[in-house]
Design brief:
Length: 312
Amino acid sequence: MTTPGPDRSGPALLPSDEVAEALRDGRPVVALESTIISHGLPRPRNHEAAQEFEEILRSAGVTPATIAVLDGIPRIGLDAEGVRRIADDDMVKASVRDLPILAAKGVSGGTTVAATAYLAGRAGVRVFATGGLGGVHRGASESFDESADLSTLARAGVTVVSAGVKSVLDIPATLERLETLSVPVLGYRTTDFPSFWLSRSGHTLDWRVDSAAEIARVMQAQDALGHGQGIVVANPLPDELQWNPEEHDRVLATAFAAAAEAGVTGKAVTPFLLGFIVEASGGRSLEVNLDIARNNVRLAGAIATEWSALSA
Ligand code: PSU
Ligand code: MN
């Protein structure tokens, strides 16, 4: 005899009423990630940020769908209490592989880009805004540390707006993997792949797009071709808002040294580096991080609006 676990007869995932209605009516919806709130930004700014990202979308006539796992159930769209929980509660960092385990145990988690994209795709939300994508870590040829964000985007039909990947990762290797996985990468008004806090990385993209409408047409064409991959939209901050490159390089070098000394590995690496960098930059990296996320949420809202017009 096994002991009965929590009641798992509920839904596999649960859209909020607001999100369900918007999807049913074909109105624009944008998915928002929760690991950026639970593990990527310090308290209490993380709670303000989560509310602000939703507000940016609402004021543009777009329904926000912040995605997280609450008590085992993946939620597509949170109420105010749900948003408070992802910011204030100690939650696990949940990637796609963790979802069934959280479900069976009734545990809560902030969803990574991978888990958020997967769940958004399942719920029919086609556009997703985050800060930076996960990618191939430096030294990955030894450690095999490559974010599940990449392989998941090869399967989830979701357009993800990010400011590229942080320079804490191996940027050229990340771009190579996206090529292998056949995930289109579109530079928004640029062909220089951004490196999150900095508007450029020096790595050149094949394709540039200049409007949200053009991105929606790429989505439509991809659907028609039946590929089913996600799309990465790389949206750099305007030059005048980026982090000072010299300070960026200096702080990153100390962050790597601290991570090596602390012996941090695996899924703890990204949160450790982000936390260290906020401290070591005296909060400057945090302000840039918030500008990046706002910029991405705005563009994602515009893409979702064009997408809903196109699919009407
Ligand atoms: N990049 C950021 N901020 C973040 C993350 C990435 O700039 O908070 C988070 C995202 O949730 C991303 C995850 O999906 O880290 C990748 O973690 P890993 O490398 O362990 O897959
Ligand atoms: Mn990893």
